[in-house]
Amino acid sequence: MKRTFIASLLAVICCCSINAQETVESTAVSAIADNNSAVPARLQQMEFISEAKPAADAQFYVYLSSASWCPPCRAIMPRIVAQYPAIKNAGGEIILLCCDRTTEAGLVYLKKYGIPFPAIMVDPRSVAGINLPGFQIPRGIPSISIVNPAGELIHAGHGATLLRWQDIIKK
């Protein structure tokens, strides 16, 4: 029993580790954004659990991997929700990749934090199978991948780096 508890605790710590993310080189949105619609086209094919649907004309997309069972995710979510109107006004769109174990848990997460952006359920055991252009497989959550409409990666890293989104998209 003690071994099971310790193994579970270590798994949660590894999944939620703030240092588990690698940052890739940032590229300015203006330098690579074009009219290619790989991301919006793929998003149209996906099933969302939220009432919100993604903007088809966004200049950049943020894939945010997060879950209600993750303490760092819960800690950062109110700040991300607060940033969403500014991100939206700047031409961005956040897509929550909800790594909860059930749709019900995901819906409770959306409601509890008033998450206004589109959300997709993602099986945390098969996140590598998600087929989104430019998506970087996270080593832990919360994590983000910021891509242009063509699916070219602009930035990948820990979810907290989303709070510096203005600096990231201007580079």
Description:
The protein has 171 residues and is of the alpha/beta class. It has helices spanning 2-16, 29-32, 38-44, 71-89, 103-113, 165-170, and strands spanning 60-66, 92-98, 119-121, 143-147, 153-158. The chain has one domain: Glutaredoxin, CATH 3.40.30. It has six helices and five strands, in the order H-H-H-E-H-E-H-E-E-E-H. It has a five-stranded mixed β-sheet with strand order 3-2-1-4-5.
Quick tags:
171 residues; alpha/beta; Glutaredoxin; five-stranded mixed β-sheet; 5 strands; 36% helix; globular
Give a summary of the structure in a few sentences.
With 171 residues, the chain is α/β, with parallel strands linked by helices. It has a single domain, classed as 3-Layer(aba) Sandwich (Glutaredoxin), CATH 3.40.30.10.
